[in-house]
Input
Amino acid sequence: MTSTGRRNLWRFGAYAVLTMLPVVWLGVLLTRTTSAEAEASAIAQATVQARAIAASAIEPYLAPEPLRYAPSRDNWRGMRNATRGLLETGAVLELRVRTIDGRIVFKASDPNFVGPRLIDPEVQAAAAGEPIIDKTTLGADDADGALKGGDQAIEAYVALKSLEDRDTVVAVAEIYLPYDKIEAARRATVDRVVWTIAVGLTVLWIVLAGIVVSLALRERRHRELAEQRSLHDRLTGLPGRVLYADRLAAALAAGGRTATDVALAVIDVDRFKEVNDTLGHQNGDALLRIVADRLRSSLRPGDTIARLGGDEFAVVLPGARADTIEQILRRLQDTLAMEAELGGVVVSVETSIGYALWPNDADSAEVLQQRADLALHTAKGVRAAIVRYDEGIDEFDPQRLGLLAELRRAITNDELVLHYQPKVDAVTQQVVAFEALVRWQHPTRGLVYPDEFIPIAESTGLIGPLTHWVVDHALVQLANWSPMHPDLSMAVNISARNLRDDLPGWVLNRLSAHGVHARRLVLEITETSFAMDSVRATALLEELSAAGVRVSLDDFGQGYTSLGSLGHLPVTELRSTVASCSR
Output
């Protein structure tokens, strides 16, 4: 049995003991209560029986005045005849008639017996009108010699009253009733009730145990499902970012112990947005699942495959060697490129891959991720299928790379500021628009210009949050100016990296949130960025243009876009290199 199985068994055993204790305690309490009630019922029954015997076998033969000595001959004979049958049938074990002061004047088992006067508190109490009923043994009374070991009996002291005056007590009857029949009836009642209680409580415990076990299993399933969902991508079932980061760290730790390399490859599905836009999001999701399934089937059990978000996947390859990693990635790329049918359309999956090796290319998981991202960014930029990180493609020195963590904090803590450059109509000399220029108010370095941190953001994925911050704050300012200047527009630069995001949906959402008309926002994109993925850029910009957002093509004249093709582009203005201004 596994340790988990033993632990679960121990927990169930502990639950069984802990829940059974109160059930057993309740059973004992109910049993004792039932036994006491049955005994009280037996005593009450004996009281009624004693009174009935006194009323039928003794009181009819007594004088109307209190007895002082033996009854008359006729009365004595009547009592003897009336009690003889009771003794013979065993209904009564012994019966005595005593005067109020305690003298025995009649004894059913020995009618000629006349005993001495005995001061007996039970007789006095019964004479006062309160019957005394108690368990005893036959012969234990002082009048019988206080013998021990006799049969169990119910001893009843009952006042005997005059038939002519029911308020007058003339004597006291001391009656011994057999206890065995009463005890048998009591025990039968108790046993029946105890059995019912035992069965009922056992069934109750089993039902409660079933409910608790069922709830525990359901809670565990929910917990496992929640954990699964928190650690895995819902669409593909692949590890998400948290689990991926944990496995990447574990792979590097294992590589350090065994002195082996670890490769990290980041895979991007080319033209994924075209599939989404053309065939719909449902088929886009199906394509991502196909990619995930092919990655699973193509790699070793020890490799880690994760979805980083959107159409990006990561593959961690422990033990990979520099001379074989590209062969592995090419085979992987060939497998992914196999045709797939989506919505009745046959498509081929084209991918770009950037990768880096640990420890040659990076000394930590974070740097390894950054450099694999840089390699992928380069692969997308130069339209290469597979690119390994190289210092030549990293234009940043260690100090500037160190700004990455600070830039993340700056975006979160609002350390960024916007400067607004006016655009003036050359004819009217009126300000007609502003361009939002982002700056970083660094807590120690002072004002940092965008040429120092924009490249870092573009190469590490922070360009998305950074662009969102800029657009959102620019729209806030534009909304504040609107009452006085309703025709002003605002221009914001966007990066080539933003073309891979769901930019139109987000932009339109923020325009609506700030109450700004779409025509008053101008998004500026460089011609170079546009040319890197013109199909996707055109589709994205057409969606924005259709909603009313204006698009400006910056740095026009670099030679990527011909004048003849401008008529097909969703742009409203061109900016030449000379006229262009820095972020």
Notes: The chain has a mean pLDDT of 81. Residues 258 and 376 are 28 Å apart (CA to CA). The longest strand covers residues 431-442.
